[in-house]
Amino acid sequence: MRVALEPGDLSLEIDQGETILAAARRQGFDAPNSCRNGNCHVCTAVLLKGRVSLPGDREGQAGDEIYTCVATPLEDCTLHWEGVLAPGQLPVRSLACQVVECSPIGGDVWRVRLRTPAGKPLRYYAGQYLLLEREGAEPAAFSIASAPGEERMIELHILTRDPLTQAVIDYLQHHRIARVQVPFGDACLTAAPTQPLVLIAAGTGLAQMQSIIEDCLQQGVTQPIHLYWGVRHSDDLYNAPHWQRWEQAPNLYLHRVVSDQADWSGRQGLLHQAVCEDLTDLADYRFVVSGSPGMVYATLDALVAAGMPEQQMQADAFAYAPR
């Protein structure tokens, strides 16, 4: 039987006679419970659809509050169960961080570095993003450029070519405290890669790839890593903080591609064209792509046509801008 969980779009497969909480534990979910500490009711959920068996030969129906530690599904069910995390999923935290750097690094891009509060270490995966909050404005999403191993430091790369992002930089320069929610995104590394990586970044999408590269280097990953960084004009190639050091890494292959500048002496064209020119069997690689939804889907289509299995490409655009 299957139990769907809201919010979060999660689901559990339940064996015959198995309680919902036992199934969640068996499948590696982090579910609210405190039975062993004598705190009952922590595992409470609301049954939205279906029927469950409860102690005392009772039956729970839609609309009932149930204790998942003793509820056994009688059919496929849907629950509203707050606080459940899928295997490997990290809890979102709200933090007030100190702004320790806010400086231009070329191409109208600013490097922002935030120090997280002392105490419980922040957990996120390389390649995830955060939401930066400001009073009177919607939270703004930015990729985390720092690797998870960089203790108490979060780095962002912010392009200031529109009023929204310029307002973010102005706010950080004047307030020196940034409140963020973190982490978000599933286009990330939850474990060391077992395949060669192809990282494809447009503009400040490089921030996401910086986090992944730095994490791989810190872990001693030996798989080949191919970085394709694309911009429209060479003036958009900002000063990537670690580029010179990356050039010394034996398994890291760096490519800068300019699409709209005829007199650029380096590589020209579109990112997916460069990838297809360089790599033969795309089925051997894992791809992470960062850019606008249009760029991401155009890259997906081109690489699938060239032989990449669709499931081997990750991009956050798939979640926030489904085609």
From TrEMBL:
Domain (2Fe-2S ferredoxin-type) spans 1-85
- The organism sits in which domain of life? Bacteria
PROSITE patterns membership: 2FE2S_FER_2 (PS51085), FAD_FR (PS51384)
| Matching Pfam families | Fer2 (PF00111), NAD_binding_1 (PF00175)
GO terms in the biological process aspect are: bioluminescence
Provide the FAD-binding FR-type domain boundaries. Answer: 92-190
Q: Name one GO molecular function term.
A: iron-sulfur cluster binding
Keywords carried by this UniProt record: Luminescence, Oxidoreductase
Q: Which SUPFAM superfamilies match?
A: 2Fe-2S ferredoxin-like (SSF54292), Ferredoxin reductase-like, C-terminal NADP-linked domain (SSF52343), Riboflavin synthase domain-like (SSF63380)
Q: Which family does it belong to?
A: Belongs to the Fre/LuxG FAD/NAD(P) flavoprotein oxidoreductase family.
Q: What is this protein called?
A: CDP-6-deoxy-delta-3,4-glucoseen reductase
